């Protein structure tokens, strides 16, 4: 077995040192009736490396992927360009095969990368501090709700109905087993109903969670939500799906977010059929001791040289156990390194280009729509909802577009079960070229 | 160090923060996409001030991160005997496979007929995990072990509620457990009761019995436990908990000792999470991503999270809605890229070799134990499973603590073991070699440990208190870091 270095001679010498006569003696403490016959598992025989490559390649070839199609799918996951350098960096064995940096003297690479990641994310989001990541956006939103409850010592959580339904479902799920309540505020017209959100904030409210740009891509003013939070003593949590947005539009921190959470997948991480994702979590500095998750801090060593360590660990499960701020242990460390490498390479200018072209593609797509399809009104970043006369005409178009190598959008009810089955959630990135948009329009014309 | 040259130790380079390397403005990067005027209603929201993200050229970026990588120790660099972490070799071919465009470049909401290949691989992985654990119903959704614990406890609460026993919220957790166990219980709205371990490091059946009452929802148990000992009374333990109306949650962090040897389901465990980043060798990545699939028996199966992968006559599909389900615990079906690597690891061993993972892992741990047991205090003598537990009791007499031993190991060329865990012994050193280490490596590690013990005995301890002396940084001021946290860089910090 190629991953096992021992020869049979090694094994017998080692057994001799241990003082047992055979391998099975090492398992003598397991009751005999629990032992299963070696090789008796109901599984396929071992594959050699060539066989595994063949198996996975054949499986991969059964799928259609963003590399050979035009991907207009979003809903929390976006097909942005990932420079080869990003993948090279996280493929380095020293980053890839390291553990959580508990021994800082020999983990300065991971730690400095995390510190750079935290700084860049905080800057991009306009927030004061940021942790070293959560699993994904949905669990980040849930953890933000829990954190807001700790900070305010209140138990009511208000969620705008325009927050990605998946983030809301996971959040309600996390909150449903502890005391307190969580409420969704209905939205209308595929945009955030700010007045209704403001209306729902009361003196018992720990936080209001809004998404900006919202699930439908709508960009709107958060000032009245901020004012209502101030009046009620509630925290404003701002969620987001595509972090590149904040290279173009005002960052959540500048709009007064107390906690800002969302997905960092857009920052150099392939879509990966759902993961590994990257959950981002930032907050105001004064709340940092209620923040969940790993965080890296700057310090110095015994010879007064700058260095980095995991810090504020007294918040965490391995120290505080049942009183910890969260149960989270593993983060998405490697994805943080990917995002750090991506942002280092892109810089303000590159990120702005990504965001501008993502938005420009949507604008071009929407402005050229034939009149049997209607786009949601109001300002949008890189995502919107297209409405068809009925489900049949939408599905007819989807099938036709797929025939032209276009994934034209996500049936809205797939993510938002309450939605009528005639809408399409459509997203664009810098990977969409003018020709792709022209083909999209042509596919729409073809089913008029 | 010169201000002008970075080489300080041969060609070991100092490397500034990326912000200190940055130019006044970003180097331009050539990107795809369409340009065009943006609508006024959007530009009215324009960001006023740039974020301050560096923007280095490609060669500078590569050099920056490659230098940082060289300050790291990884399993590819050397031995990494962290107990309870299962740091084993991560096959390179798995990296290649996970990056195939037909697997990595898939959007999670593509129509299901365009993703049949990946669904087939993931479905097969579910079947394998179920078979290995003897618990046939599986969710791949949890993103890490702790996330799996939360999911499992949610399932248990759902099953209890369905029986009209929602009032059961007490979770029994041995004092040797991982901190995530009680933390997960709290997150799930349950109360933890800590069970004191017996003198032999195993669960004390009488202590368990004393806590079994009508409020008990579950016992969370790691087996082998975190002292590396198999809970030989496991069948009796499960029977007692079931009799009292509770469930047994298995923390699968230590599954590496049991793969292909014994099944959790046969022991009576109802629900188990599997850390694929431990047992099935997906890379730890400096803290993650991980994967914590949960496997359960018939009783808990109806409550598994959605979406679920189902196999039908016309292929695979995702089931998004199910009334009995606890609902989703993640925004996607799971960390597919991680799960694919785990599937590849299992496929390489297959039916005939899987048990050799556990055999060589347990052999290696016992070999290290046998070589070190005279020089170090062994709190619970006898055979261990995949990891062995030592303490600093002997060295402490000479003023040498576990931390000193760990740091001295670094100077001798080894990553330290897990220190000060489990909490049930003073000065714990938990060593887990895994199956992918050679005898030569284990011997070299043991020699280093024996050298430290001998130096301690001889009072030759100066190097130990100051260790590590050789890495790019010596001991770091962690207290200062926590007291006055600096979590982001500002120009004033330079």
Number of extended strands of chain A: 15
Question: What is the CATH level 1 assignment of the largest domain in chain B?
Answer: Alpha Beta
CATH architecture of the largest domain in chain A: 3-Layer(aba) Sandwich
Report Rg of chain B. 25 Å
Q: Residue share in helices of chain A?
A: 25-40%
Average of the residue pLDDT scores of chain B:
95
Describe the structure in your own words.
With 448 residues, chain A is an alpha/beta fold. Chain A contains 14 helices and 15 strands. Chain A has helices at residues 8-18, 49-61, 84-91, 93-96, 108-125, 137-152, 165-175, 194-200, 223-232, 317-320, 333-367, 391-403, 412-415, 434-446; strands spanning 70-71, 129-130, 156-160, 181-185, 205-211, 235-240, 259-263, 279-283, 296-300, 306-310, 374-375, 383-387, 406-407, 410-411, 423-427. In chain A, β5 (205-211), α9 and β6 form a beta-alpha-beta unit. With 494 residues, chain B is of the alpha/beta class. Chain B has 3 domains: 18-34 and 50-70, no CATH class; 93-348, Aspartate Aminotransferase, domain 2; 354-480, Aspartate Aminotransferase, domain 1 (Alpha-Beta Complex). Chain B contains 17 helices and 14 strands. In chain B, the strands form 4 sheets. Chain B has a 7-stranded mixed sheet with strand order 3-9-8-7-6-4-5, with helices on both faces. Chain B has a 3-stranded antiparallel sheet with strand order 12-14-13. The chains are: A alpha/beta (448), B alpha/beta (494). Chains A and B meet through α1, α2, α3, α4 and α5 of A and α3, α4, α5, α6 and α7 of B.
């Amino acid at each position: 077995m190629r991953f096992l270095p021992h020869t049979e001679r090694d094994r017998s010498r080692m057994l001799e040192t241990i003082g047992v006569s055979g391998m099975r003696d090492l398992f003598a403490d397991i009751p005999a009736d629990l032992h299963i016959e070696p090789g008796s598992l109901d599984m396929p025989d071992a594959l050699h490396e060539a066989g595994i490559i063949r198996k996975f390649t054949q499986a991969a070839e059964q799928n259609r992927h963003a590399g050979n199609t035009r991907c207009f799918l979003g809903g929390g996951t976006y097909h942005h360009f990932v420079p080869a350098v990003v993948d090279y960096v996280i493929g380095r064995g020293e980053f890839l095969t390291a553990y959580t940096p508990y021994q800082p003297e020999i983990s300065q690479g991971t730690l400095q990368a995390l510190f750079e990641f935290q700084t860049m994310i905080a800057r991009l989001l306009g927030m004061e501090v940021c942790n070293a990541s959560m699993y994904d956006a949905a669990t980040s939103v849930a953890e933000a709700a829990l954190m807001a409850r700790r900070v305010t010592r209140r138990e009511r959580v208000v969620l705008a109905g325009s927050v990605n339904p998946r983030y809301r479902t996971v959040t309600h799920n996390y909150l449903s087993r502890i005391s307190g309540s969580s409420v969704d505020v209905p939205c209308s017209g595929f945009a955030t109903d700010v007045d209704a959100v403001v209306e729902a904030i009361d003196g018992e409210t720990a936080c209001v969670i809004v998404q900006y740009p919202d699930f439908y891509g709508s960009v709107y003013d958060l000032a009245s939500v901020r004012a209502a939070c101030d009046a009620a003593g509630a925290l404003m949590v701002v969620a987001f799906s595509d972090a590149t947005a904040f290279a173009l539009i005002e960052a959540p921190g500048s709009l007064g977010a107390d906690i800002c959470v969302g997905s960092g997948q857009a920052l150099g991480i392939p879509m990966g059929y759902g993961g590994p994702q990257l959950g981002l979590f930032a907050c105001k500095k004064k709340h940092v001791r209620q923040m969940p998750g790993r965080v890296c801090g700057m310090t110095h060593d015994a010879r007064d040289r700058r260095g980095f360590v995991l810090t504020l660990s007294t918040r965490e499960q391995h120290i505080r156990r049942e009183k910890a701020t969260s149960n989270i242990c593993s983060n998405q460390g490697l994805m943080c390194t990917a995002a750090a490498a991506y942002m280092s390479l892109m810089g303000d200018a590159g990120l702005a280009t990504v965001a501008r072209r993502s938005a420009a593609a949507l604008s071009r797509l929407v402005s050229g729509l034939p009149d049997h399809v209607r786009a949601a009104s109001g300002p949008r970043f890189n995502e919107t909802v297209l409405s068809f006369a009925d489900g049949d005409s939408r599905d007819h178009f989807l099938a036709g577009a797929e025939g032209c190598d276009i994934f034209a959008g996500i049936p809205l009810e797939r993510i938002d079960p309450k939605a009528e089955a005639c809408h399409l959630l459509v997203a664009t990135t810098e990977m969409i070229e003018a020709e792709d948009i022209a083909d999209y329009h042509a596919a729409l014309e073809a089913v008029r | 160090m010169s201000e002008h040259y970075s080489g300080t130790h041969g060609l070991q380079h100092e490397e500034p923060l990326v912000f200190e390397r940055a130019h006044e403005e970003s180097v331009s990067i050539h990107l795809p996409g369409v340009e065009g005027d943006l609508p006024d209603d959007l530009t009215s929201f324009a960001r006023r001030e740039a974020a301050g993200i560096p923007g280095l050229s490609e060669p500078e970026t590569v050099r920056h991160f490659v230098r940082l990588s060289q300050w790291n120790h990884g399993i590819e660099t050397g031995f990494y005997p962290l107990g309870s972490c299962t740091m084993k070799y991560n096959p390179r071919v798995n990296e290649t496979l996970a990056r195939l465009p037909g697997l990595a470049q898939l959007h999670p909401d593509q129509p299901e007929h365009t993703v049949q290949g990946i669904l087939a691989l993931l479905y097969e992985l579910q079947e394998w995990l179920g078979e290995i654990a003897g618990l046939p119903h599986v969710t791949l959704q949890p993103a890490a072990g702790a996330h799996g614990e939360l999911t499992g406890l949610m399932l248990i609460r759902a099953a209890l509620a369905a029986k009209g026993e929602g009032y059961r919220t007490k979770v029994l957790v041995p004092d040797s457990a991982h901190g995530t166990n009680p933390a997960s219980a709290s997150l799930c709205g349950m109360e933890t009761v800590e069970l004191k371990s017996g003198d032999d490091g195993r669960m004390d059946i009488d202590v368990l019995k004393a806590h079994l009452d009508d409020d008990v929802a579950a016992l969370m148990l790691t087996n082998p436990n975190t002292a590396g000992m198999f809970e030989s009374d496991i069948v009796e333990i499960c029977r007692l908990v079931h009799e009292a109306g509770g469930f047994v949650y298995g923390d699968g962090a230590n599954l590496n000792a049991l793969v292909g040897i014994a099944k959790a389901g046969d022991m009576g465990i109802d629900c188990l999470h599997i850390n694929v980043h431990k047992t099935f060798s997906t890379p730890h990545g400096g803290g993650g991503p991980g994967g914590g699939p949960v496997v359960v028996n018939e009783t808990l199966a109806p409550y598994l999270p959605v979406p679920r992968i189902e196999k039908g006559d016309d292929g695979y599909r995702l089931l998004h809605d199910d009334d009995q389900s606890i609902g989703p615990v993640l925004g996607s079906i799971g960390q597919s890229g991680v799960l694919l690597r785990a599937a590849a690891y299992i496929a390489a061993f297959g039916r005939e070799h899987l048990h050799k993972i556990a055999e060589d892992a347990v052999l290696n741990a016992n070999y290290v134990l046998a070589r070190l047991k005279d020089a170090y205090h062994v709190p619970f003598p006898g055979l261990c499973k995949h990891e062995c537990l030592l303490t600093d009791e002997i060295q402490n007499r000479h003023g040498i603590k576990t931390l000193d031993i760990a740091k001295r190991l670094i100077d001798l060329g080894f990553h330290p073991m897990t220190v000060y865990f489990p909490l049930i012994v003073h000065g714990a050193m938990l060593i887990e070699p895994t199956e992918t280490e050679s005898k030569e490596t284990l011997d070299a590690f043991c020699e280093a440990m024996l050298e430290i013990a001998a130096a301690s005995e001889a009072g030759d301890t100066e190097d130990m208190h100051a260790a590590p002396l050789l890495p790019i940084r010596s001991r770091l001021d962690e207290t200062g870091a926590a007291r006055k946290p600096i979590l982001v860089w500002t120009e004033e910090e330079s």
